Every structure is written in C-alpha cells, then in structure tokens.
Amino acid sequence: MPRILIVDDDPDFLLICRRILEAEGYHVMEARSGDQALQTMRKTRPDLVLLDVMMTTTLEGVDVSREMEADPKLKDIPLVMVSSIATSEYASEFPEERVPIDAWISKPIQPEVLVKTVKRFLGGK
Asked: Rounded to an integer, what distance in angstroms lies between the CA atom of residue 29 and that of residue 46?
C-alpha cells in the first residue's frame, strides 16, 4: 500500500485529505510542521509528500522542499505542494526562483484533483 505523507498545520485539512486518500487505498501519515515532516520522512520513507507552504512560518513548506532536494535519500520522493498562498496576502513573499516541487494544487482542494494528482505519481504502485 503506497504511503503518503500529508504536511499541514490545519487539522481539518489533514482529516479531509486522510479520508479521501484512505478511501482510494493509500496509507496516510501526517506531520504538522516542517521539522516533523523531515523526521517522519527519514524514519519511514513515504512514496509521495503533500506539503503546505504556510505553516509555522510563511514559507516553511518551501524550506522543506529545498531540504528534501538537498538530501540524497529524500530528493526523489514526488512532492506536491498544496497551498492557498497564491490568493493570500503573502503571495508576494513566494520566491520567484524555482521551488523544487513536482506539482502544485491550490486550496481549497477539490477531491477529484487531489486523487488525480496522487494517481499521476503513484498510479502503478
């Protein structure tokens, strides 16, 4: 069963995503901060990471994505950034240079978009 790590500080978002993904047969792990996410990934490697941008700090998810890219054991894990930053007051803070992600999903999340995106990376597993 493919493992998906959802990284978000919003318990409602975690619950909704968990329900959607478990109904599709995925094993879901959760982290509520970037540090917790990196610890979890290094302990139990996920097959995919869904990562929020804004958590403890405005760009915490960007920092996590860069740490993943720099870590040889984590850099090949598909990373989907999930955020509402593009429509928030913090949009101008998002870096203009490349952020190491494989896909982007805007919040509020649509269940069919979430499932389609996950299947794009894990379809055959």
From this structure: 8
Interhelix angle 111-122/11-23, nearest 10 degrees: 60
Say what the alpha-carbon torsion angle 87, 26, 23, 113 is, to the nearest 10 degrees: 30
Provide DSSP, 51-83: EES-SSSTTHHHHHHHHHHH-TTTTTS-EEEEE
Joined tokens for residue 52: 């929020």
> Cα–Cα distance between 25 and 79 in angstroms, integer?
19
Which residue, 86, 17, 29, is CA-closest to 58? 86
Span 38-62, average pLDDT: 90
pTM for this one? Answer: 0.88
Locate 64 and state its tokens: 């996590």
Residue 91's pLDDT is 55
Q: Helix crossing, 34-43 with 60-70: angle to 10°?
A: 30
Per the listing, tokens 């901060």 go with 33
